[in-house]
Design brief:
alpha+beta; seven-stranded antiparallel sheet
Length: about 575
């Protein structure tokens, strides 16, 4: 039996809330929308912003498919939610083609330019740069993959024209929109992280030193122009035409004082390619869960977490502290494996199949009951004789969004996009926020001469925690979901899947129930969740893990097919919106 966790009552009442600007939480939680947003129909969209959901639904109303709606949604998010995703970032798409009965992974993760070196994020003395410093370096910007991903998916599965899918984004960038309180908070947060290196950011988002007013339309004419050209030339022009040439020219002249930055070449963009990968799937509770393989680690993390929980026997309901204790014990075991073993497949295969073998996970599950507490060390999976890598430091990507869409034909898109930290690097090029995803590589490429798996090299894709999911029952999709949240993405999604598949909670409750996470050895419980904790936190006691409480900024977008009808729910912790066609 899992030993009960000890928490003194005085600790619960005085648990510290994490500082709002940190590597764990660059975009801290804002106001919780207690009503949430839900929708029911034959076609449903759930995105991180009302404007994006409206644009996606309009495309579906015109006869577009899920991919058409996704292009419209992500394009609008680039305008109205630039702190999280956009044309200067990357993403992953899990897509179900109902006619072909085919599940596909589109990997649009950013890549390191050819000039990259393993020590790019080290000081001259060989020490890792401070995180805030690293997030604003030109060497942290990866070659963006969002446009390539959207273009390739649209070329394969879109029904409407490419220019039509970009219309809403062009209009909003040209004519403006009213900023949300969350956007304003994110701009203020970017200010605290540091924007002095980016005059373009300051001119756009901080005119006269202040964020845009909530009651005045905010416009981004440079981004509107970029979208207009993109509508005409598509991804080929973005990666090899005038858009590409202007991007390279601008990036190479942004900060001459950063002498360690060796610049981009036009071939860095021209050689970018979306990778098609095999989904990572496992059976669980009469369902089949499918998600991302490397270079995402989030998919392995959530699959391992669920199997570890299942290995220990039937999970009690949400009102039983033991259920949450088990989750707290499973998460660090999954984290240790995914952050140690996984890397860009170009450097060789990761042992994902071995790490998911039942015999291996049964052995790992025994650590959940150890009186010494959970071992946070990676395990040695079957048929591997030694540990080949050094233990890395942990990385985080937090400026992330998620979109889930099902159309009337049964096609499903589960897509996560990101620029990494809030507003990425804070550099703005042609109206686009540029990512800082290369800080998701291990800052140290090796430790005492032993290489880290997730090491920075030219052309490589850094490890990610993004984990779009589609769940099948008897070969038919019945659920799709994903969330922002950086390293905690698989923690959030594991809890949502438990609520949906084991506790049989309806969609809104599944996303709104409290979260927990493990961060740097501490058990972190959600403070002021949309739905209250179902028991006093003092019942989580006798813990070897330090415990603290803080707000979380998950943004789960959930679709669940119930009795043949699709139900959508947006996470009330953000401003997401679910809309449907009858």
């Amino acid at each position: 039996m899992i030993r009960c966790l000890t928490l003194v009552i005085s600790l619960v009442s005085g648990l510290a809330v994490a500082a709002p600007v940190s590597r764990d939480d660059p975009e801290h939680a804002g106001q919780v929308h207690t009503g949430g947003s839900v929708a029911v129909g034959t076609a449903v969209v759930v995105t991180a912003h009302p404007e994006a959901s409206a644009a996606a639904l309009a495309v579906l109303q015109e006869g577009g498919q899920a991919i058409d709606a996704l292009v419209a949604a992500q394009s609008v998010l680039a305008v109205v939610e630039p702190q999280s995703s956009g044309l200067g970032g990357g993403g992953f798409l899990l897509h179900w083609d109902a006619r072909q009965q085919e599940l596909e992974v589109f990997d649009g993760r950013e890549t390191a330019p050819a000039s990259s070196r393993p020590d790019d994020l080290l000081t001259p003395e060989g020490q890792p740069l401070p995180w805030r410093t690293a997030s604003s370096r030109l060497t942290s910007i990866g070659v963006p993959g969002t446009v390539a991903l959207l273009w390739e998916a649209h070329q394969r599965h879109g029904l409407l024209t490419w220019p039509r899918t970009l219309q809403a984004a062009i209009r909003l960038a040209q004519d403006g929109f009213f900023p949300s309180p969350r956007l304003r908070r994110s701009i203020e947060l970017a200010q605290r992280l540091g924007v002095g290196h980016s005059p373009a950011f300051q001119a756009l988002y901080l005119p006269d030193g202040q964020p845009p007013a909530l009651d005045q339309r905010f416009r981004n004419p440079a981004l509107a122009q970029t979208f207009e050209e993109l509508a005409q030339v598509g991804a080929p022009g973005f990666y090899r035409g005038s858009l590409a040439q202007q991007m390279v020219k601008t990036i190479n002249t942004l900060e001459p004082s950063q002498i360690e930055f060796r610049g981009w070449s036009i071939s860095d963009l021209g050689s970018y390619a979306v990778r098609r990968r095999e989904p990572l799937c496992r059976d669980f509770k009469r369902h089949r869960l499918c998600t991302l393989p490397p270079p995402s680690s989030g998919g392995l993390g959530l699959l391992q977490t669920l199997v570890l929980l299942n290995t220990a026997g039937d999970l009690p309901g949400p009102t039983h502290p033991e259920a949450w204790q088990r989750l707290a014990r499973a998460i660090p075991l999954a984290d240790a494996d995914r952050l140690y073993w996984l890397r860009d497949p170009v450097d060789g295969p990761s042992p994902t199949e071995a790490l998911l073998k039942p015999s291996y996970l049964r052995r790992r599950a025994l650590l959940m009951e150890s009186p010494q507490g959970v071992s946070a060390q990676p395990g040695l999976p079957p048929e591997i004789s030694h540990f080949p890598f050094a233990l890395p430091g942990s990385g985080h990507e937090q400026g992330t969004t998620h979109v889930t869409i099902v159309d009337r034909h049964g096609n499903v898109a589960s897509y996560s996009g990101s620029v990494e930290t809030v507003f990425g690097s804070r550099y703005v090029v042609q109206g686009m926020v540029m990512n800082n995803q290369l800080s998701d590589f291990s800052f140290r490429p090796d430790i005492a001469g032993v290489p880290v798996a997730n090491r920075r090299m030219p052309g490589r894709r850094p490890l990610s925690s993004m984990a779009p999911v589609i769940v099948f029952h008897e070969g038919v999709p019945v659920m799709a979901l994903g969330s922002p949240g950086g390293r905690t993405i698989p923690h959030f999604l594991s809890r949502v899947l438990i609520a949906s598949l084991i506790w049989k909670e309806p969609p809104y409750r599944s996303v709104a129930l409290p979260h927990l996470s493990i961060r740097r050895g501490s058990l972190v419980l959600e403070k002021d969740p949309p739905l209250d904790w179902p028991f006093p936190l003092t019942e989580l006691k006798d813990s070897h893990q330090p415990l603290r409480q803080q707000r979380f900024s998950s943004g789960t977008a959930l679709l669940h097919r119930i009795n043949g009808v699709w139900h959508g729910a947006a996470d009330p912790r953000r401003e997401g919106t679910a809309l449907a066609l009858p």
